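To assess whether the prediction recovers the assembly geometry, we first specified each molecular entity separately, as shown.
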Amino acid sequence: MYIDDRISNYLEQIVQKNGLTLIHIDGTELDPDVANGRKRAIIINNNYKTNFSRYFRIAHEISHLIYTRSNDTYAFSPLSKLSDETEANLHAIQILVDFYFSEIPLKQERWERRFHFIEAFGLGQITHLVEKILA
Amino acid sequence: MVTKEQFGQKIKHIREKKHYTVRQAALQGNFSSAYLSQIENGNKNIPKVETLYRIAKGLRISKDEILHIAGITSHTAPKHPNNVDLGKQFADDDLLLSFEGKPLSPEYREAILSILRTLPDVDEKTKED
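The predicted structure of the complete assembly is given in tokenized form:
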């Protein structure tokens, strides 16, 4: 099985286990992916132009629905956007790390391969967050 | 999964039922007759959401209906149709989280809302489980 199929299955399992709905649509290059808490739905725009990989984007939206929306105080804080996004990114990285390094338990080895990981999922813009998780 | 051929046939069927000519539908939706013919004959892929909306306008059908015909919302149709008022919810942008916190264009936002309207609320999902 190719890595694409395996990670798709892995993310699909998380989606199902958490009772989420994942929908793909064709918007323009500028239309971002969307998550909605009330419907527990993730909508991925197939045409969205971004350096982040599709798998990271799905993991990011999953994280919003599973982790960052659980506490309403976050939602109404003026800084909620920033903290929610960062938190979703960290959780998304952790989801992908669990998959990517499933056969590499050693922290040191994971750290040494972090740039492969960053490249595989298009995470160059958030290298610091990847390093925070893997450190 | 709706194929482009099935989509085209359905579009043609609706147009003929409404007694619109290809030219008339094209004028109403602001696209070319040639484009509509290609769609109807299955020679074009199912278009993007905003183009679907123009076709909907051309055929005088609702946005929800065209999304359904295109197979975008078919598999997510609720078992028990309900009238969910999302107006209040979406008055607050924060509840519609977008990737990288980017704003949504009005057209895209409308497309997203159309899709979300077809989904049951979390409470209902839990009940069904």
